[in-house]
Write a structure and sequence with these properties.
heterodimer, A: Immunoglobulin-like, Immunoglobulin-like, 2 domains, four-stranded antiparallel sheet, elongated, B: alpha/beta, Oxidized Rhodanese, domain 1, five-stranded parallel sheet, 7 helices, 52% helix, 13% strand
Amino acid sequence: MRRTTAIWRKRAACIALGLLAGQWPAAATGLKWDATEVTLALRWNADSGIARFTFVNEGPGQVKITDLTPGCGCTAALPSKTTFAAGERGEATVEFKAGNRAGSFRIPIAVQTSEPAGAATLLLIATIEDAITFDNRFIYWQKAEPRGPRRVRIKAVDSLPVAFGGIEVENPAFSAKLEPHGPGGREFELVVTPPAGDVSAFTSIVLRARLGDAKLERAYTLLARTL
Amino acid sequence: MSIFRSWLLIVGLATALAVADTALNPRARTVVLAGGPPDEITLLAARTHRGPLLWIDARTDAEFSRDHIPEALPLNADHWDAQVAQVLRSWQPGCRIIVYCSQSGCGASRNAADRLRRDYRLPDVWVLRGGWAAWEKAVVR
């Protein structure tokens, strides 16, 4: 009877140790992020935006953020408080610079803390509104395909005044002209004509536009090729 | 015998706890069960692809200059317009494009692949699983 009790005590001790060992990593991980993915939506004319990754220190002691490295030159970690006491809430802030970009970008951010198991990867999903959208930025003609003109549909974002300043066609064998499409002055078509004959050629076409009341100048590049 | 049974019991309980933790912890579940995104391709699949292939390096110019997959072309957000022109000069209909950046989750390769599909209407654009790190590891082996 005494022997059985001793065996069960040993078993219970081992199980308790196992349970403690299983819980150890969770207890040691201090920073609990509210969300490891943050979405940032920017208007077409925004220069930059700030993403905030909030967290709480759920560990038993103080935690220090030792490194915050965004995986893209378009982002910068902003200086902020780095040491957090047990139970304290905080945030890691990252500035995203839009530049001349448009569309959706996924930027990982590596975080290191003073804890051995404190590394985390956050994800910033930045979406920059397109002031002007193109149904295609690359048009091509296959070999032996008729070399007739091709049209690219261009649309300005709602309620944005747009004035196109000019078209630069790098290769003079191609030609391009802009035509209004539909009422309202918000839609256009770029008509691109390739060189005649069965020749291989390539060109970039730069479309300059002045956007908004401030007439911000933007350049959009399209590409055309005959195979 | 009783010691052996005790150890068996402990190992069984530990396994049961591990399974329960994996089942209940959403992060662990993601790591264990999630497959890669549908546009990801493994290095093995890329290397055994029959047909024209265009490697695109979406890392920074400095990283590209240090080393890159043979015949890869650079394409990053900093010099997009100039570099995408070179990519489209090299592309042919029927050519598979595989984009890579530093490692899994680096983001730049997916951004570039998305833009090539969305803005330039290129079909057959893939992201290399594991990125440059996977390539380097395979080359070292």
